[in-house]
C-alpha cells in the first residue's frame, strides 16, 4: 500500500500531521537511507524503510492489546477532563486505537484495545452472543432463587427480559461473591440485573470476553499485546458463531 510520508508517520504515533510535516521539512526523516523533506512523498508501507530521528518506524496495520482496566478510568478514546483507557496504552504505534465495548468507570478487568473495526463489530454484535464473565461482590445474600431467575432472564425495564445468564455463587453472605456469565452488553447490565432481584453490586471485574481471558499477572492499569495464539483464537471463534 502506498501512502503519504506524513500520514505514515502520523499513523504510527510519531506526532500530529502538523508536527510530522514540520519534522520532515527539517530533515529529521529518511526514506530508504535518503533524507526526504517533502511530506507528500509517497512510500510503500510494505517495502520502504522509514527512519525518524535515527529510529526505524515500522508500519503496523492492526494492533491488539489486553488491558487490565483499573477503576477510575473511562472507556473512551479521548476526554477533556477524564483519563481514558487509551491514555494508558503508552507503547501504542497507531493513534486509531479504541476499546472494544465499555466497562463502567468504577469497573475493573479485561478490556480489548485495538484498531480492528471489523473484529470489534463482530464481537459486539447482538447476533453473535459472545459470552462475557464477571466476578462481583454483591451487597446481600445471593440465593439459588436468584440463580434460577438469572437463568430465565430478568426484567431490567427494557422491552425484553435479559437473555439467560449463568450465575454461580462463590460465597453467600451479607456480602456475596459471584461469577456471572452473560451474552449481552446492555448499559450497566450486571448492576441492573442484581438490582432487579433487590441487591447491589459493590465491586465488579470482567474476567473474560469470548475465549480471551484476563492475564492474572497484569495489575490494574497494566497491559500487553495479545499473543498470536490469542489473536488467532479470538478471530476464529467469533467468525464461526
From TrEMBL:
One of its GO terms (molecular function) is rRNA pseudouridine synthase activity. The keyword RNA-binding applies. Keywords: Isomerase, RNA-binding. GO terms for cellular component: cytosol. Its EC number is 5.4.99.-. InterPro entries: PsdUridine_s_RsuA/RluB/E/F_cat, PsdUridine_synth_cat_dom_sf, PsdUridine_synth_RsuA/RluA, PsdUridine_synth_RsuA/RluB/E/F, PsdUridine_synth_RsuA/RluB_CS, RsuA_PseudoU_synthase, S4_RNA-bd, S4_RNA-bd_sf. Residues 3-66 form the RNA-binding S4 domain. It is an enzyme of class 5 (isomerase). One of its GO terms (biological process) is enzyme-directed rRNA pseudouridine synthesis. PANTHER family: PSEUDOURIDINE SYNTHASE, PSEUDOURIDINE SYNTHASE FAMILY PROTEIN-RELATED. Belongs to the pseudouridine synthase RsuA family. This is Pseudouridine synthase. It comes from Mediterraneibacter gnavus (strain CC55_001C).
